[in-house]
Amino acid sequence: MAKPMHPTPNLDQLESGPWPSFVTGLKRMAKDKDYVVDILGHLEHSYQTRKGYWKGGTVGVRGYGGGVIPRFTEIKDADGKAVFPDAAEFHTLRIMPPAGMHYDTKTLRQFCDIWEKYGSGLIALHGQSGDIMFQGVTSENTQPAFDAFNEMGFDMGGAGPSVRTSMSCVGAARCEQSCYDEAKAHRQVLNTFLDDLHRPALPYKFKFKFSGCPNDCMNSIQRSDMAIIGTWRDNIRTDEALAKKWFAKHGMNELVNDVVARCPTKAIQIKQIKDVRKAANISSVALNDSQALEIDNKDCVRCMHCINVMTGALATGVDKGATILVGGKRTLKIGDLMGTVVVPFMRLKTEEDYEGLVELGQKIIDFFAENALEHERTGEMIERIGLVNFLEGIDLEIDANMVSAPRMNPYVNTIGWDDEVAKINAKKAAA
Amino acid sequence: MNAQVNAPAPAAAAPRKTVECGVPDNKPYLHPKFIANYGNWKYHDRPRPGVLHHVSHTGDQVWTVRAGTQRQMDHYTIRKLCDIADNFAEGFVRFTIRSNIEFMVSEEKQVAPLIAELEKSGFPVGGTGNSISMVSHTQGWLHCDIPGTDASGVVKSMMDELYEEFKREEMPNRVHLSTSCCEINCGGQADIAVIIQHTKPPKINHDMVANVCERPTVVARCPVAAIRPALVNGKPSLEVDEKKCICCGACYPPCPPMQINDPEYSKLAIWVGGKNSNARGKPTFMKMVASGLPNNAPRWPEVNAVVGNILRTYKADARPWERLADWIDRIGWPRFFEKTGLPFTKYLIDDWRGSRANLNASTHIRF
Fold first, then answer.
1. Architecture (CATH level 2) of domain A176-226+322-430
2. Out of A101, A116, A150, whose CB is closest to B19?
3. What CATH fold (topology level) applies to the domain A237-315?
4. What confidence tier does A1 reach under pLDDT thresholds 50, 70, 90?
5. What is the pLDDT of residues A114-139, one digit of tens each?
């Protein structure tokens, strides 16, 4: 039995209603843990005063410079003593999950046992960077708790100016839209940078995210310094049986309004079967005995919409890989930045292909480490130095797919124009 | 040299050596059907909300049942979910980016009993397709060192209101929500996001600055160069040009004595139209459509009223497959404000760098 509960009139109101309540969960643990009794008191104090009361500090595990998020209470009495002494230290351990966040129950139960023993028992699945967040541990118990997770084969995630824990979608394990082996890429890339992940020494954080197709379920374009988004180069595949089944169920109105009209590049047309073009870049599939969908793959931008709507009837191609985008991040400090294309297509099939991805990551991180200012993300660095300087620094060829439009102002010295043209022509001639 | 000094320490006293093992291989944690059909799936459908049915090129099938969780879970809750996975599924689970849990089963007949057990145990089944999925969120007062508000509590109050929409697939397209306890926006881009918006410059504890803050770093963090070093009461400190200050809070993380959080003046803003998918239009960033909402713990009714109103308007007015951004793209911003009744104030006209791109450089106007 734990000590008596603090009154928590505000938190109590978060126990009603149908959605699962984290307060009810905390209260259950508080029945036999003084630690959680005081965490509830601490949180209720925040609810009453509408302010936070944790400050950071320095807590870590042997050999690593990050991964523990230290928290010390700032709710003190007149003598400087913690008002909630059992929750005076409330650190978080960031532990990296398996790619795709898959678990067996034995592993989750072991996590629970360890965290019940050493920590508060509160686990967030998962944090916004993709870590398992083991929330609430004292400084003293930090090392033994980490040792127990490490013994299971799990390792610390990133924090501070370092390579951060990554995320990848369910991908090839369960999704027909997967365009590469996301889990393999995720693991291979991240495990190359463990030194940069565990010992923060970069100008600022660096995030990789892996999405298997342009639906980008990992939100990589907006949230990562290097986004690896699956795509394909060849034609959309079709399946007549599934197309006819879809059409029989949904009909012409939905086909026109929800599929054809929503194609962003008008690459889809409905035609009489006899009129469908026969060309290498045309995909087509019969919808009934007389009509067919015709897709001009040269116009298709691989947005995924028609494939999302008519799953199976339409599918990604087989010449698969990824588009690589660099520099995504949220506002602070220069405003929101999307990742932008630096590699329009990188094939991801063979071991060498995956090694090429790792090498590109290495080059980008090296360049970032040498050229970014303190607290500057890749996107801000590129904004400051210009994309061309960045590309030259990491040895990538420019490509018209990297821009939404060419330059809109004359403020550039084009003295080297002829040389550039000569280089492009020489390359064309050599190809 | 003393030989004893170099002798290895007894094994018991040696600290355990960390194995720098990195991201674990996920293969041992995959459902057997996932291993058997890895990279070979053909299509999927959704037999009912909360259930995905995937079929592979070999004809193999797997059913996934998705349920909502509170994300910050006590170990009893996780053990309960494990019991359900062992007794009603096949011992394997995974989590989505929005903290939903997924249970995989090999046969269709396992689906109904699994759903019944989940719902009996208080876990709503849903979050698939055109539903409102769980809010992606942050740590808030529970654990963050710079939070303007709580996260789990806001999310609990929102999801209580949106519970039925989580369990149904009745929205025009999927709806992603996020909440963030400061303007860093760790909750991320979403169709609708709730984010703290401070409205007063930081209150500086001048006695602390010199001891706690690296002053040049703090000066460099300010996006509008409003902070400068100053001597206050004879102590080296910092001062803020309050006319320039945009109240973003960027100075607070590197310098906690620059207290930006305020029980009254840290307000909540609502943002709409973020979309990370490339489907149809290119990905979009969200836009601010409301601000000045009170940080009204424990249930934030004013925030819920605005979010609920936007969602109801979108549901009633958008066409199939229109995400919130697609819908606004069609109807235009003036009608978005008209239909939702939200006031379009001068603060919603962007004046940050690159902002002229957000002005209407055309005569395209819907009358």
1. 2-Layer Sandwich (3.30)
2. A150
3. Alpha-Beta Plaits (3.30.70)
4. confident
5. 999 999 999 999 999 999 999 999 99
Amino acid residing at B151: A
CA distance B42 to chain A (A): 5
Report the residue of chain A nearest B82, measured CA to CA: A105
Which residues in B123-144 are b (16+ Cβ under 10 Å) and which e? Answer: bbbbbbbbbbbbbbbbbbbbbb
Q: How far is CA A151 from each of CA A310, B11, B16, rounded to the nearest angstrom? A: 46, 17, 10
Tell me the pairing of strands B101-105 and B61-67: antiparallel
Residues of A with CB below 8 A from B119's CB? none
- Structure tokens given for A200: 């923060």
Instruction: Please give the ipTM for the structure prediction.
Output: 0.96
Candidates B77, B137, B321; nearest CB to A25: B77
Enumerate domains of chain B plus CATH numbers. 27-120 (3.30.70.3340), 140-199+263-358 (3.30.413.10), 203-250 (3.30.70.20)
Six-digit token string for A345: 């297509």
Contacts of B28 in chain A (CB under 8 A): 104
CB contact under 8 A, A62 and B188: no
Confidence of residue A333 (pLDDT cuts 50, 70, 90): confident
- Which residues contact residue A268 at a Cβ distance below 8 angstroms, ignoring those fewer than 6 apart? A259, A260, A293, A294, A295, A306
**Which of A176, A349, A354, A404 should we substitute to test contact with B (largest number of B Cβ atoms within 10 Å)?**
A176
